[in-house]
Amino acid sequence: MPVTDVAIDKIKDMIISGELAPGDRLPKEAELAQRLGLSRSSLREAVKALCLIRVLDVRQGDGTYVTSLEPNLLLDAMTFVVDFHRDDTVLDFLAVRRILEPAATAMAAVHMSDEDIEELGRLLDELADSPTVEALVANDLQFHRKIADGSGNPVLCSLLDSLSGPTARARIWRGLTQEGAVAKTREQHTAIYEAIAAREPELARSWATVHVAGVEQWLRNALGTADDPTSAAEAS
């Protein structure tokens, strides 16, 4: 195993074991290198790598600290990777959304506070009667982010956040090219909101499935892959 990987594993073990807790400052470089049996150069490379994935935070003139290790922080690295997706993988991202988003919506119907449900309703009311596609998509992203947050599961919320970017272009494309797409989106958002407000998790799950699957099916048709649900990798 490369020495940098060894160094990363040793620091990771210190965090997992509880020797280093979120917010703790690491020992000084020379001391930590000696303690772990590492060269200072390999330790520096390990710290750089762990900073990139938001496990460590180097504060100039102060030292190196373990971050909060909150899911949204750690999964931020996943968002960075997702940004490198190709257009022919959008269907794959939508398929994952179709798995996760209905679950989050059902959980929101159980866990979301009354105040947050009211705010969700206000998001719907903010849209003009004939919104632009850009305004609709921006509202759509806020709407689904609010629901994911309302699920009460920060990991699920962060995962859905990371998936929202690659599918935003597909939503805009659909709004521009499919007749009635804007009205359909508003109707489905209203149905999802009403199911959450009524505390009906299975109904909320069903509407969320219909909503995401509708975008997915439209894109399959547009890319000519509707007859083969496994051919996302062949889309161009």
Automatic annotation (TrEMBL):
Residues 1-69 form the HTH gntR-type domain. Transmembrane segments: none annotated. SUPFAM superfamilies: GntR ligand-binding domain-like, Winged helix' DNA-binding domain. The keyword Transferase does not apply. The keyword Transcription regulation applies. GO terms for molecular function: DNA binding. Coiled coil: none annotated. It holds the Pfam family FCD. InterPro entries: GntR_C, TF_FadR/GntR_C, Tscrpt_reg_HTH_GntR, WH-like_DNA-bd_sf, WH_DNA-bd_sf. Keywords: DNA-binding, Transcription, Transcription regulation. It comes from the Bacteria. This is DNA-binding FadR family transcriptional regulator.
